[in-house]
Design goal:
about 475 residues; alpha/beta; 10-stranded mixed beta sheet; two-stranded antiparallel ribbon; 18 helices; 12 strands; about 40% helix
């Protein structure tokens, strides 16, 4: 809790007339608040309070809170994360494990998982997280809240700490989260309208585009691309698709540039240092997230042995998907890194051409993850199955998550002829923990994707989707608030 500091702030440096006056704000642990630690889940970072607020918090204070209602008027709490920030679970030795408020045996997501759990419970209305591979979108999907992954340069970034300073192959972006969609829209518009480029050199000087928002509100027919996943997530997509079809929109199945190639490029770039940077902050004996530990293990295998393992997976097990990830998962030289960046840019150009010239989409609907929430410890197996979100970090596309339904044990069982043993290694990691009986009641969301710097468009599309769901099948109902 950071409330003791809040009671001092309201007497001095809070604007009580700004657009966010009276609104409570919760913050991911990695946000810099003067007078408090930024642990990033590592014990070595404790007892080292920051001297002053980061740009994000300075902007929030200038955006204003009502000094007459200070109990919920300032950044009042920091929320839990996974050690290393590289997981869809949120646990560490410092703060323990965050659990899913819908089912305590499951994760609320990560790396902004504590934030997702708090918002789902009603302990906060608006929060700030960060996203490098799905870290605000996975919690939205797992916990049943709303999140927007902004494109780089649209939302303030300085004033956030990370476990991989200097990693820019897949840039991390700070992004908003909320319990309701109207709160998410209002918060995003308020921050962008505050001219965040005056606080943070990395923000593009692009104001809130109300004209674009209005055009999307009034557009009569959308052309929408759809990507399919596991049963519960497929049902959520089907529910949204049916509601949009009922409104007269056109939905098409798509054939974009290779999604797998995107996963290979993104995973190679994110860990091009050989997992050394995030590993350098551990103290001896400190607990590590099972997914991050698994990445370190594969990275540590000597390359001659890894190549033999690759050959066995590729030709003996006939799993070209898992083999391709293993083949490229090693520390990169500067030469190799530059080649990867060039490959990334060529891949992004292909996606742009496909979207604009071939698919001609207004937006894309995908699952946020292959499955609903993972059980605690599940990221050891599912660490490579983050492709549905990770892809759009690589492309730097604006993407939001909206909760749609809940897992239903009667509707979401795997097909009778489903053969787990025939899956590739990535799919096995995801489906190993898919159990509609155990997952019954967990939230299921849908991801809405646009191209770069389309925050206004995607938020408005999310509103159109929620309106259509309410009209044609039922809007998502979150956990009831105890008043």
């Amino acid at each position: 809790m950071i409330r003791p500091g809040a009671e001092t702030w309201v007497e001095s440096d809070i604007n009580s007339k700004g657009p966010l006056a009276g609104i409570p704000i919760s913050l991911k642990d990695s946000v810099v608040v003067g007078g408090f630690d930024v642990s990033v889940g590592y014990s070595r970072n404790t007892g080292k309070p920051c001297e002053q607020d980061g740009a994000m918090v300075r902007l929030l204070k200038d955006a204003g809170w009502n000094s007459k209602s200070f109990e919920s008027a300032v950044p009042y709490v920091k929320t839990n994360i996974p050690i290393s920030l590289l997981s869809f679970e949120s646990a560490n030795d410092l703060w323990g494990r965050s659990t899913n408020p819908h089912n305590s045996k499951y994760s609320p997501g990560g790396s902004t998982g504590g934030e997702g759990a708090l918002l789902a419970c009603g302990g906060s209305r608006i929060g700030i997280g960060s996203d490098v591979a799905g870290s605000v979108r996975a919690p939205a999907h797992f916990a049943g809240i709303y999140a927007l992954r902004c494109s780089t340069g649209r939302w303030p970034k300085t004033g956030m700490r990370t476990s991989m300073p200097g990693q820019e192959g897949i840039p991390s972006v700070a992004s908003p989260m909320a319990r309701t969609l109207p709160d998410l829209v209002y918060f995003t518009e308020s921050i962008i309208s505050m001219k965040p480029w005056a606080y943070d050199h990395s923000v593009h000087p692009i104001g809130w585009q109300a004209d674009l928002q209005m055009r999307i509100k009034q557009k009569e027919k959308f052309r929408i691309g759809v990507v399919d996943p596991s049963p519960a997530c497929a049902r959520a997509l089907s529910k949204v698709s049916s509601a949009l079809k009922a409104e007269g929109h056109e939905l098409v199945w798509i054939d974009p540039p290779s999604l797998y190639e995107g996963l290979v490029i993104a995973s190679s770039l994110l860990n091009s240092d050989g997992c050394k940077t995030f590993g350098s902050f551990f103290r001896t004996g400190e607990w590590n997230d099972p997914g991050a530990r698994q990445m370190q293990f594969y990275m540590s295998i000597p390359r001659p042995l890894k190549y033999l393992y690759y050959l066995w997976v590729r030709y003996a097990r006939r799993d070209s998907i898992w083999a391709g990830l293993l083949e490229n998962f090693h520390k990169k030289s500067a030469f190799e890194q530059w080649k990867l960046v060039a490959r990334r840019e060529e891949y992004k150009a292909r996606w742009h051409s496909w979207w604009q010239d071939e698919a001609k989409l207004d937006f894309l609907l995908t699952p946020p993850n292959a499955t609903p929430a993972v059980p605690h410890g599940g990221m050891k197996d599912a660490v490579s199955s983050c492709g549905y979100t990770f892809l759009f970090n690589l492309l730097d596309y604006t993407s939001g998550v909206i909760p749609v339904t809940h897992v239903d044990r009667a509707l979401d069982q795997l097909p009778v002829r489903f053969d787990f043993n025939k899956l590739n290694g990535v799919a096995k990691g995801a489906y190993k923990h898919y159990d509609a009986n155990a997952m019954h009641g967990l939230p299921v969301g849908v991801q809405v994707v646009g191209q770069r710097l389309q925050e206004e468009k995607i938020l408005t599309v999310m509103q159109r989707i929620e309106d259509a769901l309410e009209k044609h099948g039922g809007k998502y109902e979150g956990l009831p608030l105890e008043l």
